[in-house]
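Milestone M4 deliverable, item 7.
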Amino acid sequence: MQNVFEMMNAVSDEDKKSKPNRRRGRRRRIEIHPKYIYLIFFLFCVFMIVLTYRFPQRFAGVKSIAGDIVSPMQKGINRVGKTLSNRRKLFSSKKKLVAENEELKEQIDALKYDNRILASENSDLDIYKELYALDQKYPDYPKVAATVIGRDGNNWFHLFTIDKGKADGVDVDMNVIAGNGLVGIVSEAGNHYAKVRSVIDDKSNVSSMFEKTGETCIVSGNMETIYKGYIDVSMISNSVKAEDGDSIVTSQISDKFLPGLLVGYVTNMEEKSDGLSQVAQCIPAVSFNKLENVLVITTLKDSSENKDILNYD
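Output delivered:
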């Protein structure tokens, strides 16, 4: 046992002696700064370039080996560079497309606005053309144009208000026309407005005649049948021969309505059950569900020689 302890002590003493030597060995390790390594590598490359240029035959094999090593690397680098370049071009194209898209959207919005303006102007132009044609149809009557600004009751313009009144030369009992013919008559007039009762109103009765024959009749408003597209015609003589589509115009014997204004077109004429007269239906010449603009004839019927055959409210 004593020998064992002596051997262990001897080993420990040797370790103690060797530790300083190990520490000294670690301290003696040489550390080279990276820049010197780069410099050495650079000089080596320059040296190799000079040698290969100076002795091309001797270094042909080295150049071949270097080419085999470098070529795949170069291909990979080229591929990466090309990919990055394509990505950059794609990103640049995308930005350009987005900018162009925004510019096109602005142009489309501007065009839509211009189209709305043009559509509105075209609509106004169509209205003016219609009113002009109507004015030319009755050139002997002075007129003033007016816009419908309100209506009473349902969707049909049986009673409505216009934006012209006494200050514009509009007065009660003046005839109102639109579309292809007679709309109605002014029933009330203020300084800057007027109310119109149309020929389709239940209280309306227009002394009329068949344009072809001159035979008289009465066209009466009917707010029930107008939904089917017609109003009533009565007091037609049995001697009257008329076909569907014949024109009905205002007659000379009315003391309120000027003569010759188109009221509508006759249809479904038949003899009454008493056999003394006929009745028919009249398709109005005006669309009374979409009136926007009218012409007011600013002259009154001279009824000094005639009396109306029926009262008009």
